[in-house]
Amino acid sequence: MNPGVVSHASGSAWRCQKAGHRRIAGFTLIELLVVLVMIAIASSVASLAMRDPAATRLEHEAARLVALLEAARTEARAAGLPASWEPRAVQVGAEGFHFVGFPPSSALPSNWLTAGVTAEVSGARAVLLGPEPLIGAQRIVLRLDDQRLVLETDGIGPFAAVTEPVTASR
Question: Which residues sit opposite 104 in a β-bridge?
Fold first, then answer.
């Protein structure tokens, strides 16, 4: 070991000279990398925490509606029922939707889990679900506060949420 160098746990070295001690200052590359990783983790947690709760609730409602529509579509095809899904008019106390053409024993829900969600079928009053395997292209627009989400099907595949390009006219 060199008698002129004394090591410390911090990774810095002190050099002994005739007139006194002098410290070599600076950060090691490992220390800088640790700080950068901590900043990256903190910023990612902060960005996740700032997500709009209305958008999350609307996405949950959309996922639930997709599952309900696909289950009802399967049931309508299997039973040969001319069935459809209709959103209720936007009025106080009339929020929700209903399935038309199913027997009461099917027990399909008729309300949103989140208050304030509204739906609109583009170009029609209702979404046709069966009994035919090909139902035609259909589109549903869900809204909650200032959030908007679109569900579409081409008539062959299942309903799915689609992203729309943002325009200034909205």
Answer: none
